Amino acid sequence: MNARKFLLSKGTLGALIMILFYGLVMIGTYFSGYKAIPHKVKDLPVAIVNEDTQSRSLKKQLKSDLPFHHIRTQYSIKQAQRKLKNRDVYMIIQIPQNFHSDIVKQRQDTNLKFWINESNPATAVTAMESTANLVGASIKNKVNLASGQALFTKSQLLTLQKQAEQEVKSNPAASAAIQGKAQQQSEAVMKSAASMYKKVGNTVGYKIKKVNKVPTGMNHSMAPFFLSIAFYIGSMIGAMILYMTYNEFIRTIGKWKSYALSEVSIILLAVIAPPIVLSLAKHLNGFDTQAFLHLWVVHGVELFTALNVNFIFTLILGQLGILINMPFMLIQVVSGAGLIPQIILPNFFKIMSKVSPCFYTIQADFNLLYGGPSNNRLILSLILLGLAAIAAHLVVVGCKTYKKFGPKPTD
After folding, report:
1. Can you tell me the mean pLDDT for 181-187?
2. 380 and 233 co-located in one domain
3. 140 occurs within a structural domain
4. How far apart are CA 365 and CA 224, in angstroms?
5. N or C: which end of the chain has fewer CB within 10 A?
6. DSSP tag of 340
7. What phi, psi does 116 have (nearest 5°)?
8. What is the CA radius of gyration of the chain?
9. What is the CATH number of the domain that holds 71?
10. Angle, helix 255-285 to helix 376-399, in steps of 10 degrees
C-alpha cells in the first residue's frame, strides 16, 4: 500500500512530467535547429573576384560549379575583404591579375586564392575550407590537364611538320600529296591527344588565405559560445534565487521597494560576477588584458539583460517560471549562432535570435577575441533588450497583487 502510494505520489508524477517536458523540449529544439547542417550551408553567401580579363570563362565556370546559391561577383578585392570581415560573405575566390597568361607561360607560382574568415562559427569555417580544397583541386587538375594536353599536341605537330618538310625537300613533285597526308596526321593527333595524354607539368595551384586567425583548439573556436551560455545559465538560476529574496522582502518593505532593490542587486551582480568568471577564461585561453576588459563590459551587459529577461517569467509564475526560462535558454543555444551562422538558421531560430541575449554576446565575443566589426550596435541592442525587460517588470509588478505586507508571522 505504501509502495503504491509512493509510486503514485505527486513527487514521482512531478518527476515524470519534468523529465518528459525537458526531454521533449530539448530534442525538439536541437533536432529542429541543427537540421540546417549540412544542406543549408549552400545558403552562405560567397564572392568571386576576377582581376584577370582573360579569365572570364573561368569565372563563369566557378559560378556554375560552386555549390552555393548566393554568389557575389560585383565586388573589388578590397570591398570583398571588407564584406568578409563583416560576415556579409563567408569566402572569397580571387582570380589574380595575369592568371591566364601565367598559366600559358608555365609559371610555377600561379595560384587561385581563397579567402576565409576564421572569426566565425566552426561549422562555417570548416565548410568553406572543404569547399576551397575541393574547388581548388578541381581547377588545378583541369588547368594542368589542358596545359599538358596542349604541350603534347604541340610537340607531336612540330614533329609531323619537320617530317613533312624533309619529305618535300626529298620529293618536291609530291609536295601536295605530302602536305595532305601531314594534314590528316595532324588532325588525327589532335583528336587522339586527350585519350593519349598523360598528366604533365604542375603549372597552377591554389592558396587558402585566412583572416582573423583563431588559435588552434576547440577551446578557442568555441570560446564565444561557451562564455555566453555560461553567463546565461547562471542568470537563469540567479533570477530564480533573487525572486525568493524579492518575495520575502515584500512583506516588510512592499513590492515597489523590493523590486527596486532587486534591480540594484542585478546591476551589482552584472558588475561583480563577470571579471571573476573571465579571470579563469583568461588563464585557460590566454587572451590579453585589453580583451579581458572589453569582455567584462560585454558580459556585464549580457548578465544585466539576461537576469532581467529571466526575471520576467519568474515574477509572473514564481519558481514555476523555470518552465519557460529553461526552454528559452535551450532555444538560445541554437539561436545564439555560436555553432551555426544566423543566416542559415531555420526561420524560427532566426527570429528568436533578435530577442536572444546570447546572440548579441556571441557575435561581440567573436569580434573582440578574433576580429570583426564594431560592437557598438550589438551592445546597444543588448541594453535595449534589458530595458524592454524592465518595462515588462513594471507592468507585472504593478498588476500583481500580494498579501498585505507586515511582519512575517512566526510559528
Report:
1. 55
2. yes
3. yes
4. 5
5. C
6. S
7. -130, 135
8. 33
9. 3.40.1710
10. 150
